[in-house]
C-alpha cells in the first residue's frame, strides 16, 4: 500500500470505531434492552430499556446500570411514586416514558431521585392536578403532559433544576381554563420555558406569561374571546405565535399584538369567523416575516397592511395561495425624493404545480 494512503486508512478506522453501534443484551423478562456503544473501541455504552405493554405488575422493574432511557408506556399503571422509580440504573436516567397509562395523580417525590432526567413523557393519562414541586429535582428540558385532564396548573410547578437550560412544555389537549402565573414569592427562579403548547384547552383569555423566556407559543383551538392591547405583555422575545382554529367568535382589536416586537411568524389560519378591525391590528409587528391568514375572513387584504409590517416577506391567504412582498424600484434615473412602491404579489401554487405537470 502506498505510504500516503496509510494516514487516510487510519483516520477511517478511527471514525468507524468512534461511531455508535447497536446490540441487544439480556433483559428483565418481557422487556427489551438495546445497547448503543460509543467512543474508541466501544469504550462507552448506553442502554435503552423497553418495558411497554406488559401490564402493571412490571413495576418496579430492575434495569441495567447504564440505562439512559426507560419506556414504561401502555402498562395500565395507576400510580407512580418514589419506590417505583428507585434502584440501580434509575439515578442516571435521562429519558422516561410513562405515556398511555392510567395515572390520575403523581406523588410529589415521584421523580426526586432522577437527578439526570431530561425528557419526561406523561401524555395520554388521566392526571387532574400536579404537585407544586414535582419536577424541581431534575434538569428537565422536555415535558409532555398533553392529553390529560388538567384544569388548572401553576407555571411555578415547572421550575426545574435545569440551570438555565430551555424547557419545552406540552400542555395541549387538556381541560385548562386557567394557568397561574409564576410567583416570585415562591423562592424559586422563574421556569425557563422557551416553548409552550397550550393548544386545545378551555382558555378564554391569554394567560399571564410574564417573566418566561418564551420563543414559541401555541394557543390553537382555545375559546379566546378577544385579543387587545396588553394581551401579550412581557413577551417581547416571542418569535412564533400560533392562534389557529380558535373556538367561538374571536375578535382582534387594534394594537392587539403591539407588545410582540420580536415576533417573526404569526399563524391565524382556520378562523373563518375572524374579521378585520383595521390594519392597525398588526401595529408593532416590525419584525414579522411570515403571516398565515388561510381559512379566515381576513381576505381581501387592506392596502395599508404593509405599512404596519415592514419586514413581512410572505402571507398565506388560502389553500395553495401564497403572497410575497414585491418592491417596485421604478425607472432610472430616479428622481429626488423617489420612494420605491411596495406591494403584494400573490400566486396559486397549486395551479402552478398543475401547469408544470401538464408540461412534462
TrEMBL record:
Superkingdom of origin organism: Eukaryota
Molecular function via GO: cytokine binding
Major subcellular site: secreted
Coiled coil, from the record: none
Example GO BP: anatomical structure morphogenesis
Gene Ontology cellular component annotations, sorted alphabetically: extracellular matrix; extracellular space
Keywords: Developmental protein, Glycoprotein, Leucine-rich repeat, Repeat, Secreted, Signal
Locations listed in the record: Secreted
Pfam family, one: LRR_8
Signal peptide residue numbers: 1-21
InterPro entries, alphabetized: Dev_Immune_Receptor, Leu-rich_rpt, Leu-rich_rpt_typical-subtyp, LRR_dom_sf
Oligomer status and interactors: Interacts with FZD4 (via FZ domain); competes with WNT2B for binding to FZD4, inhibiting Wnt signaling and repressing peripheral eye development. Interacts with TGFB1; the interaction contributes to regulation of the hair cycle. Interacts with netrin. Interacts with CCN2.
UniProt-recorded name of the protein: Tsukushi
Organism (species): Ovis ammon polii
The organism's taxonomic lineage, starting at the top: Eukaryota, Metazoa, Chordata, Craniata, Vertebrata
Amino acid at each position: 500500500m502506498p505510504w500516503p494512503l496509510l494516514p487516510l486508512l487510519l483516520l477511517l478506522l478511527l471514525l468507524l470505531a468512534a461511531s455508535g453501534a447497536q446490540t441487544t443484551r439480556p433483559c428483565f423478562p418481557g422487556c427489551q434492552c438495546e445497547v448503543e456503544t460509543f467512543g474508541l473501541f466501544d469504550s462507552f455504552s448506553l442502554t435503552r430499556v423497553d418495558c411497554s405493554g406488559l401490564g402493571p405488575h412490571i413495576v418496579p422493574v430492575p434495569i441495567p446500570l447504564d440505562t439512559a432511557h426507560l419506556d414504561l408506556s401502555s402498562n395500565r399503571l395507576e400510580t407512580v411514586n418514589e419506590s417505583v422509580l428507585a434502584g440501580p440504573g434509575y439515578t442516571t436516567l435521562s429519558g422516561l416514558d410513562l405515556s398511555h397509562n392510567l395515572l390520575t395523580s403523581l406523588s410529589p417525590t415521584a421523580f426526586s431521585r432522577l437527578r439526570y432526567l431530561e425528557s419526561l413523557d406523561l401524555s395520554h393519562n388521566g392526571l387532574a392536578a400536579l404537585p407544586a414541586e414535582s419536577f424541581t429535582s431534575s434538569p428537565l428540558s422536555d415535558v409532555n403532559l398533553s392529553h390529560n385532564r388538567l384544569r388548572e396548573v401553576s407555571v411555578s410547578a415547572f421550575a426545574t433544576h435545569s440551570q438555565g437550560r430551555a424547557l419545552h412544555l406540552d400542555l395541549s389537549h387538556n381541560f385548562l381554563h386557567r394557568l397561574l402565573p409564576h410567583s416570585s414569592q415562591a423562592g424559586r427562579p422563574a421556569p425557563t420555558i422557551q416553548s409552550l403548547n397550550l393548544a386545545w384547552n378551555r382558555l378564554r383569555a391569554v394567560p399571564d406569561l410574564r417573566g418566561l423566556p418564551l420563543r414559541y407559543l401555541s394557543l390553537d383551538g382555545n375559546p379566546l374571546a378577544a385579543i387587545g392591547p396588553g394581551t401579550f405583555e412581557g413577551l417581547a422575545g416571542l418569535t412564533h405565535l400560533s392562534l389557529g382554529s380558535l373556538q367561538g367568535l374571536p375578535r382582534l382589536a387594534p394594537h392587539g399584538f403591539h407588545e410582540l416586537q420580536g415576533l417573526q411568524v404569526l399563524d391565524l389560519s382556520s378562523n373563518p369567523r375572524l374579521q378585520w378591525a383595521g390594519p392597525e391590528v398588526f401595529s408593532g409587528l416590525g419584525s414579522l416575516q411570515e403571516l398565515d391568514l388561510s381559512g379566515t375572513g381576513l381576505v381581501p387584504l387592506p392596502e395599508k397592511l404593509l405599512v404596519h409590517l415592514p419586514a413581512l416577506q410572505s402571507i398565506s391567504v388560502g389553500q395553495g395561495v401564497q403572497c410575497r412582498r414585491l418592491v417596485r424600484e421604478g425607472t432610472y434615473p430616479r428622481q429626488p425624493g423617489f420612494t420605491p412602491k411596495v406591494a403584494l404579489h400573490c400566486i396559486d401554487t397549486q395551479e402552478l404545480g398543475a401547469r408544470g405537470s401538464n408540461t412534462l
